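Weekend entry, working from home. Most of the wet-lab plans are on hold until the incubator is repaired, so I used the time to fold the two sequences that have been sitting in the queue since the last round of cloning. Logging both here for the record. First:
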Amino acid sequence: MLTTTWRRRQQYHVAQVDVFSGSAFLWAEAVCWTLRKARKPYVLTLHGGYLPAYAQRWPRRVRRLLGSASAVTTPSPYLLHRMRSYSRDLRLLPNPLDLQAFSFRLRSKPAPRLVWVRAFHRIYNPTLAPRVLASLAREFPEIRLAMIGPDKGDGSLQSTQELARLLGVAANIEWPGAVSKTEIPTWLDQHDIFLNTTNIDNTPVSVMEAMASGLCIVSTNVGGIPYLLESEREALLTPPDDEDAAAAAVHRILMEPGLAEALSRHARRKAEQFDWSIVLPRWEGLLMSLSEGRPPQC
């Protein structure tokens, strides 16, 4: 990464660097040091639900890095709010979606077909999903859940599968593992309810993709989620790690007249704000202004 940044310095005019917490922050610092040596302007883009806590622990380092950039952006209204004190000019530039890749289907009469799309890691709390399923299986014996995502190796996948067996819902769950980005729209189109169980979150692309597809979303109300989704309008938000509340939300979507259709329609309308045709011109304006030595514009 550092070698490429330096060796190819004659091939670019401006750089964009993603900033996360933890060890990834150290890499961002190193890359930006190299860019300064190369006399290249750079844009920092803030990511990750852990970043505000990291900034509280290391405020001087975070302010120093953000202050060194020509512009600082974030795709998250949550981070825009939480990180304002570390950058004088923090800009909101949403994560873009290719809406044409997703087939919108209005969920007016949803079936009990749930999908979960995330990595198997404890911060995403995947074990909540089979607990929700078990709470609903007695009333909806035909209920199905697809849990899609890579195994991050902390034992979460094995714990989730074992819990599903103990709760008697293993036969109701499909485990396709990690799938390619191009396959996600098809998986979403085959389901009606999107379950997001995470304990820490920012502005997850998986949720945005579910919005674009018109799924009815049930999500924990953590981090940046309430900045992305309005509860009772675009999703039903529940407390973290509360299987009773999440199961009740799914039950409402399946049984409450008009609710699923309203959630589906409003989620799609929100997703349309993130299409590439809207977001890309703003990025182009920002990067072109910096490459030409003008004040940043987007």
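Second, folded right after the first finished:
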Amino acid sequence: MKKKVSILIPCYNEELNVVPMSKAITELFENELTQYDWELLFIDNDSKDNTRPLLREICKNNYHIKAIFNAKNFGQFNSPYYGILQTTGDCTISMVCDFQDPIELIPQYLKEWEDGYKIVIGIKTSSRENRIMYGLRSMYYKLIKKFSDVEQIEHFTGSGLYDREFVEVLRELDDPTPFLRGIVAELGYKRKEIPYQQPERRAGKTHNNWYSLYDAAMLSFTSYTKVGLRLCTFFGIGCGLFSFIIGMIYLIMKLIWWERMSAGMAPVLIGVFFIGAVQLFFIGFIGEYIMSINQRVMKRPLVIEEERINFIDEKENQLEMNQDEME
């Protein structure tokens, strides 16, 4: 019996990429990876363009291809994670829809999987994206790796192969705010890392912006580091000590030069605004932790589905397609 490989492709407004991606995956398994049974699952995060009609047509013509349509946009982390949980293969390979995870990685992933690795991930060694963005990402990865309680994986975007045993671990976590990159580092089996150069996006516009990148950074910080809370404590102690020393210096200077010393209000105002700014910053930072706790306590579902396509017995589906062709 053939082993079954599941390919997960999260998408959002990818009308220019879903058809080429489905063709590329289909050709790969029909021409090169014929030893495997396979399924291709698109999970659409409430696209506003022509993505969903195209996916319906793709699924209609190939029973290997499935689709899940979310009722709304559930974010860049929940939707892919939920999609992995819906796959049925002996392993699941997660890749983005814009071809920035090269499909040439799939045979490499499968080779390492056959050699015994239960997790095989892609690591960006370089990128053709904006150099400034790549540099900022590199700084972020090094920062989170330095301060995290768990070893973090640099330049790992989530693309990789996950054995069914690890997918079962993900199912049992019951985490309403999952961060797959951190989970792989924290709970994953021994893994194999495959280096690759990230190509440019094939078509369309990226949906990542400063807010989404900030959201990712805060999720990883609040999930895997204590540095934010410790920084608040240490900085507060430092500011208090510094203010006490400055206050004593001014008091001594005033006592010595009573008539000539005129401190005025400037030091007081500067100190008040400085301390106020520090307090606001750390209140917001602590709020990120509280918000993360709140989301976990509420236990909201990862995704609410609006529609599923081709999630029926594959043999039955094939018989229906054959009957349609005969008619």
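Plan for Monday: verify the second prediction. Residues 266-298 form the longest helix (33 residues).
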